[in-house]
Design brief:
The protein folds into two domains: 95 residues; 215 residues, MetI-like (MetI-like fold, Orthogonal Bundle), CATH 1.10.3720.10. Helix 5 crosses helix 6 and helix 6 packs antiparallel against helix 8. The protein contains ten helices and no strands. The protein is mostly helical and 317 residues long. Helices cover 84% and strands 0% of the residues. The termini are far apart.
Length: 317
């Protein structure tokens, strides 16, 4: 009996020791799992941070590359222009160089709105008077040319009727219309506006007509099925589809109008950038002529960019 009881007690002791070992092993396994989970979490966080850092650096590199790609070529182009200009000015002493022209421009724009009489006004007034003439001639051309373009593009009979007239008159030089304007209006200012009008109207008519003529026939067939009025067809189908073509014509017209006004003002006189250029030539002030060339280019660029932004704002895409 004693041996049996001792055996039972030893078995119980052995089982307790095994349970203790198993529980300790489970505790150790749990702690190891926690440590491994913590290690994996930390490694994942480090990896995510590294990926985010690499992504941000790549994004910065892409943006920097895009910025340099957009800025460096124009800068190089302007530097090349200045280098060629400087080289030519050294070969021809009568042509002022970039530095002397810059000093003259600073002096000229220090007081751009002085007024010493009708024939002696600042460069600011001359630019404003030229812009006024351009806006009047261009505005009248848009009011007449764009509706004519829609009519010509919409109706085949109107297209055939207007095509020979446009083909005949469009190639005529803008300055050839100036004597007609002087004869009819008996004044230089309306004649200059007339030249701008007749020069700017053709691109708007042609581009608007082309845009309207390219409307898919399926759209017009659906309009017939729905029995839409001509006004609905114009507002819902023709105008949205032809708008990009129309804005292209507007951009071309404003460039032509600003180009023509300089030549027209040289011939008609008065106040304006063209007359100012001619007056400076009579005074042999070549530096001011070069400044006027840059002014005409910059103003023309700003006009085109403003119309481009307007076209994007009212785009139907």
């Amino acid at each position: 009996m004693s041996a049996i009881s001792m055996g039972k007690e030893s078995l119980k002791a052995i089982m307790k020791s095994k349970n203790t070992i198993v529980s300790k092993g489970a505790v150790m396994t749990t702690s190891e799992n926690k440590e491994s989970n913590n290690t994996e979490t930390m490694s994942n966080e480090i990896t995510q941070k590294a990926v985010a850092t690499v992504y941000q650096s790549n994004q910065f590199g892409i943006k920097a590359y895009g910025f340099l790609k957009g800025v460096l070529p124009p800068i190089f182009g302007l530097l090349m222009l200045l280098a060629i200009w400087t080289l030519i000015s050294h070969q021809s002493p009568s042509l002022p160089g970039p530095l002397s022209t810059w000093h003259s421009a600073v002096e000229l724009f220090s007081d751009p709105f002085y007024n010493n009489g009708p024939n002696d006004q600042g460069i600011g007034w001359n630019i404003l008077f030229s812009l006024e003439r351009v806006s009047l001639g261009f505005g009248m051309a848009a009011l007449i040319g764009i509706p004519l373009g829609f009519i010509i593009g919409r109706f085949e009979f109107a297209n055939r009727m207007a095509s020979p007239v446009i083909s005949l008159l469009r190639p005529v030089s803008p300055l050839a219309w100036l004597p007609i304007g002087l004869l009819v209006f008996k004044a230089a200012n309306p004649a200059a506006i007339w030249v701008i009008f007749i020069s700017a109207i053709w691109p708007m008519i042609i581009n608007t007509a082309v845009g309207v003529s390219k409307v898919p026939q399926d759209y017009l067939n659906v309009a017939k099925v729905l029995n839409l009025s001509e006004w609905k067809v114009f507002t819902k189908i023709l105008f949205p589809f032809a708008l990009p073509y129309m804005m292209t014509g507007v951009r071309l017209s404003i460039g032509v109008a600003w180009l023509v006004i300089v030549a027209a003002e040289m011939l008609t006189g008065g106040v304006g950038i063209g007359f100012w250029v001619w007056d400076e030539w009579n005074n042999l002030n070549v530096e001011h002529i070069i400044i006027a060339i840059f002014i005409v280019g910059i103003v023309g660029l700003l006009l085109e960019l403003s119309l481009t932004q307007l076209a994007k704002r009212f785009s139907y895409d």
